[in-house]
Specification:
The complex is a heterodimer of chains A (187) and B (807).
Chain A (H helix, E strand, L loop, with lengths): L1 H21 L19 E8 L2 E8 L11 E5 L7 E10 L6 E2 H7 L4 E7 L5 E5 L12 E6 L3 E11 L14 E12 L1
Antiparallel strand pairs in A: 1-2, 1-4, 2-3, 4-5, 4-8, 6-9, 7-8, 9-10
Chain B lengths: L1 H16 L5 E9 L10 E4 L5 E3 L5 E7 L4 E7 L6 E6 L4 E2 L2 E3 L3 H5 L17 E4 L1 H6 L5 H5 L5 E6 L3 E6 L7 E5 L2 E2 L18 E8 L13 E7 L7 E11 L4 E11 L4 E12 L2 E2 L4 E2 L4 E13 L3 E15 L9 H9 L17 E17 L3 E17 L12 E16 L5 E16 L11 E17 L2 E21 H6 L2 H4 L4 E4 L3 E4 L2 E16 L4 E12 L3 H5 L1 E4 L4 E4 L7 E12 L12 E26 L2 E25 L4 E14 L4 E2 L7 E10 L5 E10 L10 E5 L4 E5 L8 E15 L2 E10 L23 E9 L1
Parallel strand pairs in B: 1-7, 1-8, 12-15, 34-37
Antiparallel strand pairs in B: 1-4, 2-3, 2-5, 5-6, 9-14, 10-11, 12-13, 14-15, 16-17, 16-46, 17-18, 18-21, 19-20, 21-22, 22-23, 23-24, 24-25, 25-26, 26-27, 27-28, 28-30, 28-31, 29-30, 31-32, 32-35, 33-34, 35-36, 36-37, 37-38, 38-39, 38-40, 40-41, 41-44, 42-43, 44-45, 45-46
Classes of the chains: A mainly beta (187), B mainly beta (807).
């Protein structure tokens, strides 16, 4: 009899313990929103010349892994046999005001490189306009020269931690931060 | 005190004057650890000189003893320390005698044969001995478990090793350490169990959900890490293992020290340090694969027959490098990496561990107590608190930004109350309750959207199981009910919320609309019922068969529910679904076993085997598969979505052991598993290929306990796999190419050698020296279940030297 009573006491004590601790969960603290700092939403290529200026832009409003598709807009006409002064700008527009990621890329110029790849048939050549401390190209500033009228893809790629120097995308390695293709018509 | 002793002595002597010598002293001799009775224990009364032995039930009886007299009884058993106790006869007296194992025996608890099983009597269970644990001292839990048939591992490199039981892993495998269910974000395929292998005395693996007392959602199985046993005797002992390895140019040191007393009190400390630099494949260095681990554990308590209390604390800290070449930015990068024979990042050897890397800290504080009530059974109570901190460092655009990309803190409180019925030797029965609360806190300072949202979770569980033995038959059954409640706070991208149609389905979940993001409060309630039933039959002393059926159900885990972004190392977008229901598994396992004969008369007497086929039918099985592609500023990404389907896993595990002679034995293992998505009639991804391990061992106890073994491990190519290949546009070549993420690597064959010798240093201290070579021929190979197989070969030759000192 005595042993049964002590079992009862034991169980009650334990059950009380379980209930006591299981009710102690902390209450809802609303988590704070995170605006992704690593996201690039906008790639803008600006070309200026005496023949007029052109803007090539790709805007992915919800970042790389959101369902929205990047929207590509090209304003202005790319004229034949013209030399353009070019810049590439990277923005994070999920933040207000938009964060200019180009500054970050330029600060760490030895760890980044922009590549310009015109498809075969598109009469465009590019030359780097800015360089890192070792004299290797960075590419947020460049010169674009057009030949005769033609049409094709023009791809801008930003690589992080590429092998520098390199002879182009094929042996650059690193990770792709940006790869945007514009359908360009030289007229 | 002196007065009290005097008084006792006086009373004893005064009683002995009026003695009559017709009384009996009866009782059982019991193994203190597992409460099994001990047959053939020898008892003698020193005063009378009579010697008897316990009978087949472990019972002894002395008769014609004098009432009031005190006798000195000496008890001995081949497996135990001889002990002497004093018993005062008071009428017909009963006295249960608890025996303690030899220290030596404890060090190498042999888990074959008669050791008590964790998962019921008909569950299919395998065990890893302390010897194998120690041989893998510098490795991980997954490495040690890999030695078992039916258990393989899903790796990320060679330091993140997740156990796979009969084809299933992650949330489908429950890990129990010292009675605590490990809560360490085990759902992630790149999250290895956060425990120090060296702290384990032995490890049991229940293949399937038959371990109901541990949880009802172990669709794959349960791994139980048993603590080291501590003897009840006055002793101070310790053990130190030093391991040095050539591959990784590092090693580990682990040491334990235990003090115990006859009174049952004990205290024990265990510490481990591991440090490795970059590991190496046969042809190159695997850059950024180093590891740094620091663990410690303390236990203090008292262990008596009728009650016991233990408090313990353990901390596990590790820092693991993730192969640099496996970090890719886009699907095109992945294609480049796959199509290159060599990793795209190979640097000089270093001990530095740079991003990408993981830093994990897991702490467990535990208090448990038991009380045994005669004729009823044993009640145990345990409370534990676990805190898991996981930091994952990614390569950031700004290399001076040293914040982690993932910073999760998971805190779990659990309490369990278990009752074990021990009054009837032919019945084993257990029942218990569980209550648990859990909070996940992802730190927003990462500046990167949360992979896993903030959530609170509450679980309750209740179970009962019983088995009965009737001559050669054993029957058992059990049932468990679990309640899970999850209260999450998750930010969704508005575009995703709408693209999924959640805005129409779940408008009530929206707490706040922040424009581009929406804060939601999804709540989930799951009721899970699980059950097991089994039958066993012993044909004779050699052959027996068991059959077990297990029903289990598992609630979806956080990544299956909430994933909504880019998985960097796989260069793919992974999407979960909050509409998921739990998955339910029906598994049937059969095992036919032959034990080794006690004698060696005929050639076949040294043969033992287990053949264990199984069939696991899972409805609403949650899997992830490619469903399309998505355009982004980094090019096209493949989109993988979680989906529920019906699946079937069929397989067989075979273990053979042949003791050819006193010196030679041969072991053979074969594991086959086939997984099929029965709805689509396609093979399941990541099912372990057929593999077989054969080992020949030479032992010579007379010559320093020499043990030499040669092992052949053959892993076949997985020929059944889903085709998840996709096309990607490559800018440089202006062409589309096929990215082959499906085709499994070729079969491979590895040879491993190991030899060990024991030396006596002093009468209390022994030294064991072991030399091992893994991948003897430096074979280049890739493992289908290694997530880094796309980027680099697996490990090359490794020579390790291990010194073990017992003192």
């Amino acid at each position: 009899m005595k042993s049964i009573k002590s079992i009862q006491t034991y169980i009650i004590a334990l059950a009380t313990g379980i209930i006591a601790f299981s009710c102690s969960s902390d209450d809802d603290n609303t988590p704070i929103v995170i605006n992704d700092e690593e996201v690039i939403t906008t790639v803008r290529v600006q070309l200026t010349s005496t023949a007029g200026s052109v803007t090539l832009q790709s805007l992915d409003s919800d970042g790389e892994d959101g369902p929205n598709v990047p929207v590509i807009t090209i304003t202005g006409d790319v004229m034949a046999n013209t030399t353009y002064a070019g810049t590439v700008t990277f923005l994070n527009e999920t933040e207000t005001p938009a964060e200019d990621i180009t500054e970050e890329v330029e600060e760490e110029d030895d760890e980044h490189q922009v590549f310009f790849t015109p498809a075969a048939g598109l009469n465009i050549t590019t030359e780097y306009g800015n360089f890192d401390d070792d004299g290797n190209p960075l590419g947020t500033v460049f010169t674009l020269t057009t030949g005769d009228a033609s049409n094709g893809n023009f791809t801008v790629t930003l690589r992080h931690e590429p092998t520098k120097p390199n002879s182009g995308l094929a042996d650059a390695g690193g990770e792709t931060d940006v790869e945007v293709t514009f359908d360009v018509t030289v007229q | 005190m002196k007065f009290f002793i005097m008084l006792c002595a006086f009373m004893c002597s005064s009683i002995s004057i009026a003695q009559s010598c017709t009384n009996t002293l009866t009782g059982y001799v019991i193994d203190l650890h597992d409460q099994e009775t001990l047959v053939d224990a020898t008892l003698s009364i020193e005063e009378l000189g009579n010697i008897i032995k316990t009978d087949a039930k472990g019972k002894y009886t002395f008769s014609n003893l004098c009432n009031g007299a005190t006798y000195t009884i000496r008890v001995s058993h081949p497996l135990c320390n001889t002990q002497t106790i004093n018993v005062t006869i008071n009428g017909d007296t009963e006295r249960t005698i608890n025996m303690e194992h030899h220290l030596e025996e404890l060090g190498e608890v042999s888990i074959t044969g008669e050791a008590k099983k964790n998962g019921g009597k008909t569950a299919i269970e395998s065990q890893v001995s302390n010897e194998i644990i120690q041989a893998n001292s510098a490795g991980s839990l997954g490495d040690a478990l890999n030695q078992l048939s039916g258990v393989s591992s899903l790796n990320t490199g060679n330091t993140v090793v997740k156990p796979v039981i009969q084809g299933l892993h992650s949330s489908r495998v429950v890990l129990i350490t010292e009675g605590t269910r490990l809560q360490d974000q085990e759902w992630g395929v790149e999250h290895a169990p956060n425990i120090d292998l060296n702290n384990a005395g032995s490890i049991s693996v229940i293949k399937g959900a038959a371990g109901l007392q541990y949880g009802g959602d172990a669709v794959g199985g349960t791994i139980i890490v048993n603590p080291k046993r501590i003897p009840i005797s006055d002793s101070l002992y310790g053990e130190t293992l030093l391991t040095g390895v050539t591959n990784g140019r590092g090693g580990s040191v682990t040491t334990s020290l235990t003090k115990s007393y006859n009174s049952g009190w004990y205290a024990s400390f265990q510490g481990t340090l591991k440090r490795f630099g970059d590991f190496e494949a046969p042809d190159y260095i695997l850059s950024n694969t180093g590891a740094d681990e620091r663990d410690a554990a303390v236990r203090i308590g008292v262990n008596k027959y009728s009650y016991g209390v233990e408090a313990s604390y353990s901390i596990y800290n590790n820092k693991l490098g993730i192969l640099r070449a496996s970090h890719v930015g886009s699907a095109a990068d992945l294609a480049n990496a796959i199509n290159s024979d060599r990793p795209l990042f190979i640097e000089d050897f270093t001990y530095d561990i740079n991003p990408p890397r993981q830093e994990v800290k897991h702490q467990v504080a535990r208090l448990n107590a038991y009380k045994r009530f005669d004729d009823i059974g044993k009640f145990s109570f345990q409370y534990d608190f676990q805190q898991n901190n996981r930091l994952e460092f990614d390569i950031r655009r700004d290399s001076e930004d040293v914040r982690p990309a993932i910073d999760l803190e998971l805190r779990t409180h659990s309490a369990t109350l278990d009752f074990e019925y021990t009054a009837d030797n032919t019945i084993d029965a257990k029942a218990g309750l569980l209550a648990r609360t859990q909070t996940n806190f992802p730190d927003p300072t990462t500046g990167i959207r949360r992979l896993i949202p903030d959530y609170d979770r509450v679980d309750f569980g209740v179970y009962a199981l019983a088995s009965k033995t009737l001559d050669a038959w054993t029957i058992e059954g059990g049932v468990r009910y679990d309640y899970n409640f999850i209260d999450a706070q998750k930010f969704y991208r508005t575009s995703f919320w709408e693209a999924r149609g959640y805005d129409v389905l779940f408008p009530e979940l929206v707490v706040e609309d922040l424009g581009t993001q929406i804060l939601t409060n999804p709540e989930f309630t799951f009721h899970n019922v699980s059950a097991t039933a089994g039958v066993g039959y012993d044909f004779n002393d050699l052959y027996s068969i068991t059959a077990n059926y297990a029903l289990s159900s598992r609630a979806p885990n956080p990544s299956e529910l909430f994933s909504d972004g880019l998985h960097q190392s796989a260069a793919r977008i992974e999407l979960g679904d909050i509409r998921f229901d739990q998955e339910t598994s029906n598994k049937v396992s059969v095992a036919l076993s032959r034990l080794p004969a006690g004698r060696q008369e005929s050639f076949w007497d040294g043969w033992s085997f287990t053949v264990a086929p199984f069939a696991n039918f899972i409805s609403d099985f949650i899997l992830i598969e490619p469903t399309g592609s998505q355009q982004s500023l980094r090019g096209n990404f493949q989109v993988w979505e979680y989906r529920q389907t019906d699946a079937r896993l069929l397989g067989i595990d075979v273990d053979n052991e042949f003791r050819v002679s006193e010196h030679f034995s041969i072991n053979n293992q074969l594991s086959i598993v086939k997984g099929q998505d029965t709805t689509l009639d396609l093979p399941l991804i990541n099912i372990p290929p057929v593999n077989t391990t054969n080992r020949i061992t030479y032992t010579n106890k007379k010559w320093h306990n020499l043990k030499v073994s040669a092992e052949s491990q053959y892993v076949f190519r997985q020929n059944e796999f889903p085709n998840n290949n996709f096309e990607i546009f490559i800018v440089e070549t202006d062409q589309n190419i096929l990215v082959d993420v499906s085709t499994p690597p070729d079969a491979y064959h590895l040879i491993n050698l190991r030899g060990q010798l024991d030396f006596t240093v002093s009468n209390k201290s022994t030294l064991q020296v072991a030399l091992a070579v893994n991948n003897l021929f430096d074979t280049s190979y890739r493992n289908y279940l290694n997530r880094q197989r796309f980027f680099a070969d697996d490990l090359g030759r490794n020579v390790s030297l291990q010194l073990k000192i017992n003192y």
